[in-house]
Write a structure and sequence with these properties.
Order of helices and strands: HEEHEHEEEH
Oligomer: single chain
Structural class: alpha+beta
Shape: elongated
Strand content: 35-45%
Radius of gyration: 22 Å
Largest sheet: 6 strands, antiparallel
Number of strands: 6
Length: 191
C-alpha cells in the first residue's frame, strides 16, 4: 500500500510538472536567446505596465504608461555567452523586425545603473536581471498594422528578462449594474 501511495504521489508531481512546463514557452514576438532556459513566465491578459525609457537631464526617470496584455519572461542565460553578445542579438533581432529603440543603456560602463535603480524604485517596471555592476537594458516599440507592442529586455550576468506589452483595449461589458434593483430595494425596505 505504501509503495502504491508513493507511486501515486510521484505521478501527481510529474503531472503537475509537465503541465507547468507546457506553459513555459517563448513569447511569439521575441524568443529567448538560443540555449537559454525559460525559468518563469507570467502573463496577464490585461494589466498596467510602465516601461522605463531613461532619465531626463535632472536625473528623473521617465517612461511610458501602458495598458494591455503583459507578458513577463525570465531566462537562465547560457554559461558560455557574454552579456554583450546576448544583448546585441536581441537588439539586432528587434531592429531587423522594424522596432524603434526607445532607450538603451550599458550598465557595464555604469551609464545607467543609477537611472535604472531609481526607475525601479519609482513607478517604472524594472527587472531583477541587472545588478549594480553588470547588465544591459533596452526598450523598444514594434508596430504592425493596427497592433503595437512594447518590449523591454534586460540582460544580466545570469538571467535575461523580457517584458512584452501588447497594447490593447480592455474587455468591457463584463460587469452589469441594475439600477432598477436599487429602486425596488428601497421600496421594499421602506426607505
Amino acid at each position: 500500500m505504501r509503495v502504491l501511495m508513493m507511486f501515486l504521489a510521484l505521478c501527481l508531481c510529474v503531472s503537475f510538472s509537465a503541465e507547468a512546463a507546457k506553459d513555459l514557452t517563448d513569447h511569439p514576438l521575441l524568443s529567448g536567446y538560443e540555449g537559454a532556459l525559460l525559468k518563469k513566465k507570467d502573463v496577464k491578459d490585461y494589466d498596467a505596465y510602465s516601461v522605463f525609457t531613461g532619465s531626463d537631464d535632472a536625473g528623473e526617470p521617465g517612461g511610458i504608461d501602458l495598458e494591455g496584455k503583459v507578458s513577463l519572461l525570465t531566462y537562465k542565460n547560457p554559461a558560455d555567452r557574454s552579456i554583450l553578445e546576448m544583448f546585441r542579438n536581441y537588439e539586432m533581432a528587434l531592429k531587423n523586425a522594424g522596432a524603434e529603440i526607445l532607450y538603451s543603456c550599458d550598465q557595464e560602463k555604469y551609464e545607467c545603473a543609477k537611472q535604472y535603480a531609481q526607475a525601479v524604485l519609482n513607478k517604472y517596471n524594472g527587472t531583477s536581471a541587472i545588478s549594480n555592476t553588470k547588465g544591459r537594458y533596452l526598450a523598444g516599440k514594434i508596430k504592425k498594422d493596427d497592433h503595437t507592442a512594447y518590449v523591454a529586455v534586460a540582460v544580466g550576468a545570469s538571467y535575461t528578462q523580457i517584458h512584452v506589452v501588447e497594447v490593447k483595449a480592455m474587455d468591457t461589458g463584463m460587469v452589469s449594474v441594475n439600477a432598477a434593483a436599487l429602486g425596488n430595494g428601497l421600496d421594499q425596505q421602506g426607505y
